[in-house]
Amino acid sequence: MEESSSATTGDxxxxxxxxxxxxxEVDTDQPSTCPENELDDRELDGSESKPPLNxxxxxxAVEVVxxxxxxxxxxxxxxxxSLRLALSEVTSGSVDHMRCFGDTAGRLQESALDAATEGxxxxxxxxxxxxxxxxxxxxSR
Length: 141
Fold this sequence. Notes:
The structure is a single chain. The protein is rod-shaped, with a radius of gyration of 25 Å. It has three helices and no strands. Helix content is 67%, strand content 0%. By secondary structure, it is an all-alpha fold.
């Protein structure tokens, strides 16, 4: 009986170690979307022309953030599955402990996903702010 449970445990651990979360590195050599080399954006009538937003770069950045958030959520799921397995071994499968742990793990996962969502909102706000700063007259010389 112990051999079959330890074999199952070994198989489950092998599966969890085989899963890798790949987080895409951000290319820091990408050209800035800020119009640094433009002389003056003022039209003849004195109004300023605004450069078009580089939405493709913004969308790419958002996609990276979303992909990383999903990877983090998957990582948490894997972690909780491992913890659930370890707890079941220690408690000899106590149903009460498993329910308690399941509830706690679920709440922690929800909190982690909420934090990732808030992080996405923060990054999006930073991107919008950065775009606005690039359009500011004092930055375009």
